[in-house]
Amino acid sequence: MKAAASADDAARVADAARVASAAHAELHDRVLRIGRSRASALAYGLLRVTCRALLLPYLRVRSRGKEQLAVPGPMIVAPVHRSNLDVLLIGAALTNRRVWSLAKVSLFRGRFSSWIMASIGCFPVRRGALDREALTAAEDLLREGKAVVVFPEGTRKTGAVVGEVFDGAVYLSARTGAPIVPIGIAGADEALPRGAHLLRWVRVALVVGAPIVPPVGVGERLGRHERHAASAHLRERLQAVLDEAIELRSSSR
Question: What are residue 12's phi and psi, to 5 degrees?
């Protein structure tokens, strides 16, 4: 009896997982379809113009190295992550290219919120687990020649030390041949701290580092040792541009 009940429970769990996976894949398809539309491109352009007119002057944003982003072709934009402002600052202050980025799946609840998030270049990711749909979506966008933001630290962190770096950026670089561009951002966490709803009047600085070439040839298998070594190198580069951004911000005061 107990064995039969356990088997039934396992089957129900497996069915629920399949349903959830199918729903997540459908959400990705819908979001990317919206994101590729003309209306979405217009909404993104309007947001960028608004940020350049209001956000950048208010935060007295300074930047260095943005020419590293002024190149065509696929690109993995890899910033430190300290604030929800990070993607807005990158898209407004550093490049004229449209930048796509991962955002937690809870922000895509409902068709209207999904449209808003897709229009500003976001697509959903489930945190705390390997999200194959998100990786596939990011890979597809890179193969189309897009610039995709991937936060190597995963979620938002605090402080001036770069935390553990996950392998997602390195994996995508090896799969697509896209270079990884590290970006340091200083001051965004003070401008909009975790849990805050109003912007604070502080200076923000961004520094873009030189691109990191893929660790192996496109499509070649990346071993665990190579993956970890490449991620460790990315962490070092992130720390260097974060240190430079902190220095640039301090010198602007």
Answer: -65, -40
